[in-house]
Design a protein that fits this description.
The chain is mainly alpha-helical. It contains 16 helices and six strands. It has three domains: 127 residues, no CATH class; 85 residues, no CATH class; 62 residues. It is 56% helix and 9% strand. It has a two-stranded antiparallel ribbon with strand order 1-2. A two-stranded parallel sheet has the order 3-4. Helix 1 crosses helix 2 and helix 10 packs across helix 11. The longest helix has 22 residues. The chain is globular, with a radius of gyration of 23 Å. The N and C termini lie far apart (63 Å).
Length: 297
């Protein structure tokens, strides 16, 4: 462990090698679980005493307040059940929650969104002594269907900042036609992303490849969106179209498995306003023929 004014650096080549081998070998992962499982509490205690406490003290000597560890990608934990029937997210975050909170430092975990709809959600809050913080989509429209000006302005800047990182926000807006054939094409990109940051950047990248240069035309952006729509509709099962129809009608999602799959598959996005959470269909799917048939039936 190296500590200086810049922060904390872990040097763990041995652990890295073990992790790489374990990823490639289910048998090795199983052996590691069998060996480490009964020793978990002792391992956590050793980490606290031998690693985290000395690191925290050294950080304080450099004027830092403490140590924060971010454990990312746990939101992608497979939802398949354990051999005894317990879903993997509930087993990890509820059954083993006390161990996850045992590290003597601030820890931020990313959680599978489906846990919000689990019957164990209350127990989860008790384990971590905090309610999970949900990061909703950037709002592109309000509940009544009108455009959300603030959210759209943020998405425009998100896109333009990639091209003009050193310009002021107002100066970037003057450069729109260097990237898009019109301001309306940029707005269309933002609207079709549904406010999903990763998706708006993916669509932007695909549009640049399709255009083979700049500025991006509305025609080529339409082709990119149509391709994405085709990909998504192939993944939607017949009964899920009916669930999507219910979401379009009620703006709500319940806790059953069907609705959870809609969220995991990004068929449905969550938004927040002063009234709380509300849900809407991924804009890419809204023009799908199958959904229009459900809405008209």
């Amino acid at each position: 462990v190296k500590v200086d004014e810049q922060g904390l650096e872990f040097v763990a080549l041995g652990i890295g090698k073990i992790t790489a081998k374990a990823k490639a070998s289910p048998q090795l992962r199983s052996k590691l679980r069998d060996y480490l499982g009964p020793r978990t509490n002792g391992i956590i205690e050793t980490i606290n005493q031998e690693l985290l406490e000395p690191a925290r003290e050294e950080l304080k000597q450099h004027g830092k307040n403490g140590l924060v560890v971010i454990v990312d990608n746990l939101d992608k934990v497979d939802s398949s059940p354990k051999p005894w029937g317990r879903p993997q997210p509930e087993y990890l975050f509820v059954d083993r929650g006390e161990q996850l909170t045992g590290l003597n430092c601030h820890v931020i975990y990313t959680l599978p969104l489906a846990l919000r709809f689990s019957n164990d959600y209350g127990t989860l809050i008790q384990r971590f002594k905090n309610s999970p913080q949900v990061l909703p989509m950037v709002s592109i429209q309000l509940r009544d269907g009108s455009q959300c000006g603030e959210g759209m302005a943020l998405l425009r800047q998100l896109v333009l900042a990639r091209a003009f990182p050193n310009l002021e926000p107002e100066e970037r807006l003057e450069k729109i036609t260097e990237i898009f054939d019109s301001a309306e094409t940029l707005d269309y990109l933002c609207q079709m992303s549904g406010g999903h940051v990763r998706n708006v950047l993916r669509m932007l990248n695909d549009a640049i490849k399709k255009q083979k240069g700049l500025p991006i035309s509305r025609e080529n952006l339409d082709k990119v969106i149509q391709n994405l729509r085709n990909e998504r509709t192939l993944a939607v099962e017949d009964e899920e179209w009916e669930l999507l129809r219910q979401v379009a009608k009620t703006e709500k999602v319940t806790g059953d498995d069907g609705y959870q799959k809609l969220i995991r598959s990004m068929f449905v996005y969550e938004y927040r306003d002063d009234e709380g959470s509300w849900f809407d269909i991924n804009p890419i799917l809204k023009d799908a023929v199958e959904l229009k048939k459900c809405l008209n039936s």
